[in-house]
Amino acid sequence: MPEAFTLKKALLGSVKFRWLNFTGYRNLDIFVSPRYFCNFTGVFFKGSKVGFGAVTPGSKAKLDAMYVKSVKEIPYNVSVLEISQVILPYDLSTPAPSANALNTSAELEKAGCKIFVQLITVTGVLKTYEDAITTGLTMFAPTNEAFTGPVMAKLNKLSSAQQVSLLEYHAMPVYSPTARLKITSGPMSTLVDNPPISRAHTCAPVPQTLTPTPSRASPDVTAALTEPTNIVLRSTTSDRPVLKWNHIVYESAVSETDVILFAKGINTRQGINDVPQTLRCVFSNTVETAVTVSAQEVFRCPHPPQHLQSQLSSGKITLIMPSATYYNIPEAKKDIIPKKSLCTCTMVFNAAKFMKEWIIYHSHVGVDEFFIYDNNNEDHLEEVITEFVQSGYNVIRCLWPWAKTQEAGFTHYSLAATNKCKWVMFTDVDEFILSHGWLQDPAASSNALKIMLLNKTSSSNRVGQVSMKCRNFGVSNLKEHLVAGVTQGYTCREREEQRHKSILLLEVSSLSLMNVVYHFELKPGYKTVGVKPSEAVINHYKYQAWSEFKKKFTRRAPAYVVDWKEGKNGLGSQDRAPGLGFEAVRPLDWETKFCQVTDTLLRQFMENVFSVKNAGSLNSLMQW
Question: Model's pTM, two decimal places?
């Protein structure tokens, strides 16, 4: 039997290769399916000119990757061949068309889809389509004939929400040319699964991603080729499992030099990280790059080769695990804008009532920008932030639907703020920095936090982080939240300081971006300096009226902190409130707990700086 070799197809589509000027025969074309091995005898190549190219059956291709020589052969097993250039999948070698100035409705009407245009216009789905175009869109638009007979009557019986879901089901949030659809057999997500986020709410300047909304359920869609030019959609809900939240790439960001993925299911224990060498970033299921950093839920890897970036843009990116995020090319450098001295970042869930007091106070003492991660808030947070923005405050809201990802959110902001903020403070909205020096002259306290930060770092250029102790305030006999604010209602605390919070110099955070919620790992050579409680502390209004505090039993924000209703860490965990069990049951003495020292210093400061006269009353009101 003649010597044989095996060639396995590894790219999308079929590989086509042609024997040119084959002696005694016409040119010979052979297709290799993605699912099979092909066996040829080695003598076929001898004395022949062989060209390779990736195509779909029935189409023409450039066979310009030429056979050069055989590198290694193992009979009946494998053969390594040298060819003159890379064989690109058909849809990667075809540039994606520009979406600039595309009139979606006009193009659809020209194609005979006027009724479909009317439907997506009146339901608002047209705007959803247009928002998705910039990052990629594949639309399956029925023609007018499809709405004949009983179809319209059935549509009219659907609720508005059902009509929207049905119309969003007819588009995918990724650009897929016809050639790719012809060879696709796996399930594909639609806009119902992955609605495009409005630009007003994205986490600029970190590139936009398509984030699935956890509360919306929808069928997946599979594209199947029935005729050479016909694509049909069929639901695969019944036979495809839902993505599991504990094993998924849920968010991404890009820098000029690399891609950063946020993923659950790899580093599942705090302080124990999988080595990067065991992982790979995969772009659109075709291109891989090595993972360089694996730390908590953060993974970094290089961009794909530059000549492939535009073709891979908006394609799925993963770590060889389920993914809900997409690759975006880093934006070109813009004009350099002077950095803000001090920004602050927080993540909130149903905390709108606390925002005004927290923002007004910290803006007064020197914070230039407030970045709020909206972790599925159900209150009027957006309304509160809009009011601040209209009043001239620099407040940015970022939709962040992922549960138990506080560390990842802070890492995400450390990337987003690199080019616009010098220092960033990471705190909660029930925490307020206070320096005893500010009490002596409240009128001079404007920008006092910046001044204190400058004084703590001026003696050394190796200071990368400033850390302050926290004082936990108790319930102070309150039974409900005071409109005047937490600083006015909670006036007693525990005697000993607990834990700490930090202000980070962004440019010296380590490449791993490792953080333990409120402090970051630094580059070698940089240090964290502590602030003595006699200089400054953080008042943490931790133990509030029971109607507020019991909400903490719903869920905890950090990735490695167990929810309070679970018994995994026991009742001795530092995150828990002493004396409470695993259920939100109010202790009989709750109103008097955690009160060892009376402390009204910040309340007095607030009254001196932020109180305003109440017309017709002897009492003053706070600005919020």
Answer: 0.58
